[in-house]
Amino acid sequence: MPVLDRWLPNFDMHEVHEAILPLAPEAALARALALPAAPDRIVRVLFQLRGIRGGHLRLDRFAREVLHLEEMERTPTTAVSVGGRQRLRLGISFAAEPAAGGSRLVTETRVAAAGRRALVAFRAYGLVVGPFSALVRRRWLRALSP
To answer: What backbone torsions phi and psi does residue 91 show, to the nearest 5 degrees?
Structure first.
């Protein structure tokens, strides 16, 4: 069961990315949350184009201070943050589990729109921004690889 099921079970959009890391699950999650939100030049440029500040912050601080998400769950192998703004609820999770050679780290993002108007607006926004959002998450996971 995805960890976000407990905090944002109903959603209109979701995105999942994963990587196998040669680390114990606890170390993989700790490393992910300590990663700068903009770990490389590509993500820094994408953040600049969107006017997003705080790329130097660790991911856990970025979620709280920039995205204004509340940490809902934190264990040695899971971290879930959820929040809302402008008729949208956003949830982001990281979960690490044992896998051959180390651990499998999964990040999932979910968005739930409050009402049809918000959903239509978000879907239009998602068509433009969605591919870049997915790229950011893939770059996060790539930055974790040794």
So the answer is: -130, 135
Give backbone dihedrals phi and psi of 23, rounded to 5 degrees, phi first. -135, 155
Domain total in the chain: 1
Q: Which residues of the chain have pLDDT under 70?
A: 1, 146
Residue with tokens 């170390």: 27
Residue 5 half-sphere exposure, CB side, CA atoms within 13 Å?
A: 4
The domain in which residue 51 lies consists of: 3-144
CATH number at residue 34: 3.30.2030
Only one residue has tokens 């934190």, namely 74
For the chain, the maximum distance between any two Cα atoms, rounded to a whole number of angstroms, is 46
